[in-house]
Amino acid sequence: MRILLFTSIIVVLLSSPLYAAVNVVEQVDWSGGGGVLGPVSEWGNRFFSGTDIYWHGVPGRIFIMMIAKHHIDTGYLDTNFAVPRDINGDGFEDVIATDPSGRRIFWYQNNDGSGLSWTKRNVANNLDEPICVNSEDIDGDGDMDIIAAIRIDDEVIWWENTNGSGTSWTVHYIDDGCNGPRSIHSVDMDKDGDIDVVVSAYSFPNIMWWENSDGLGTSWIRHPLGITEQARSVHARDIDGDDDMDIVCAYFYGDQIAWWENIDGTGTGWMKHVIANNYDHPWSVFSDDIDGDGDTDVLGATYGSHHITWWENEYGTGMSWIEHTIGEGFGNASCVYSEDLDGDGDIDVLGAAQGTDEITWWENSDSTGEIWIEHTLDEDFSGAICVRTADFNNDGSIDVLGVASFSGIAWYDVSDSSSIGVLESSILEVSQSPDWHYFQWASSQPAGTEVMFQLRASDDPGSMGPWSDTLWLPDSLDGVVQDEKPYFQYKVIMTSPNCESTPYMYQVSLFWEPYTGIEEENHADEYSLFNPRPNPSSSETLMRFNVPEYTAVDLTIFDLSGRLIESSHTNYEAGIHQIAVDDLPPGVYIVRMSSNLFTFSKLFTVLN
User: Fold this and answer.
1) What number is the average pLDDT over the span 332-349?
2) How far apart are CA 39 and CA 428, in angstroms?
3) Rounded to two decimals, what is the model's pTM?
4) What class is the 528-606 domain?
């Protein structure tokens, strides 16, 4: 990885008397966002525009937005669960979400099917901590209803989508004695053709399912599975291959993953089978055919040991399990889910990590679940807690829905990856007619990535003119932008050869000093150090200066670390004098001219 971190050295150097005449303007933060064209007297934390650049809430750096992220709602906190469903029957995937602290359940209407325009619609208020939500057709009328677990009130409730458009809801209580429900799942448990409801709870009984006895959602029969450890997450799937619905569960305080066998297929007789013990505080469980062998395997997310794991159903009967680690160091893993995200015919795995604020998916690269490639979609999604999938923009590819306790709800267009990001700064106005000296930046660049700049200066902020040639490395501004033009703007271009790595940019610095007027011929009556010529140079550099009287002059050259390179002490007659400097290695240097009466400094660059 290449790291360009010259700025701190130069800033320290230029803040000393060695180069006190030079002004430095820096930008080290872009987290305030775009929209400020300027002119501005300092860059601050804003900029003009950005394309595929990630800057949101990340002070001190910008990088390529490798995957397009679209916010659904950032205006409220404490959301902890959301699921996609087409609530209004228009063919577009909407989103249903809980707001525990706001005591609400609502849904977001995907207005035009692009996933870019959303309308927030209320379902229910005054719910004492709605903790989990799902959506299925409970009453069999062809539209999507909503089911929720209400933790403090110990309730399991469903809301009937009365008119099928999601604008009118009728509440129906399934049970008001559920003793701290934590997760909810909806599926046909008894194979009678209607949707039943499965819930896990922290208090006894810990796992229950409710039979939708009339198929209309108006009559429910409760079936407890057993009194065991506190259950955090539940998912229903046929584990033993006997064509009925079994139940997989994560026991948070019991450090256990287990499944319950639906013995007779009716959901009235159950037997518990342990999949894994000592699985440190499992938060989430899911099930799918991970290795493509035709049976159901089990996925788990452990909050305590920060793992995403899958257990191979070795013989397809649920009696023998082989543990496989998918991801490690996934801080406080809070959700696991599965989907063929890359469309290659096998099952990939997704996760949310509350502790490290991540939404990540793992590519099942060999289709057997043995080799996984990690892809981070977001590493700054504060309090990431839930992940699901759907096609939100109707492009035929699967997108990812993310939920975060402190960042709201967003979706990621995995098919829309970018390998280039561009940011244009606000237009800077300096206080005096400038002599532009040097432009540099601090960045880190993994192999194959690039950070480059284009610059421009003008005397009219409404007409900045064309951009300069591209700067691949920090460089002198001689011949790049015109002096005496007080308006300055930069454009950073960041590239990557793939969607796996991105360069990071941390700081830009612009060096200038007040322009001193016409060179040489008009300086006969004053002490002057002229701009080194040529600059940059590939051989010798001429240092020209003027003294109006017989004077002793010290001429000194330093590198950017402040190390003395060359020096001379000579008495000069009045007039313009010239010294040639050569044999310097490539780099940036400072020439200082001084006597008892004055001190001047200039920057110059030596190329290969």
Assistant:
1) 93
2) 5
3) 0.67
4) mainly beta
